[in-house]
Specification:
The protein has about 100 residues and is mainly α. The chain has helices at about 1-15, 35-65, 70-100. Among the domains are: about 35-65; about 70-100.
Amino acid sequence: MSAMSAKDSAKSSKHQPAGKIVAKGSDRPTGKRNNSEVSNDSINDSSTIQLQLDTMELTLTGLRAQMLKKEDIENLISSTVTKIMNEMEKRNEEFLTKIKKY
C-alpha cells in the first residue's frame, strides 16, 4: 500500500504546484471599488449629464431667439429679388437706349 500512496501523492503533486496554493480570484486587482464609490461616480455622472443638458437648452434657447422668423426670411428674399429685377430692367433699358442711337 505504501507504493500506492506514493503514486497517489505523485499524482496530487502533478496537479498542484509545490509551495503555497493561491486562492481563486487573488489575481484580481486589490484596488477594488466599494459600493459607495460606484454610487458617487454615478451621481457625478448624472450631475455632469444634467449640466450638459442645461447648457444645451440655454444654447438652443439663445439660438432660437436669434434665428430669423419665416416672415423675415420671405421679406429678405422678396426684397433681394426685387432689387435684382430692378437692376436688370435698368440695364436692359440702358442697352436698348444705346441700340436705338445706332
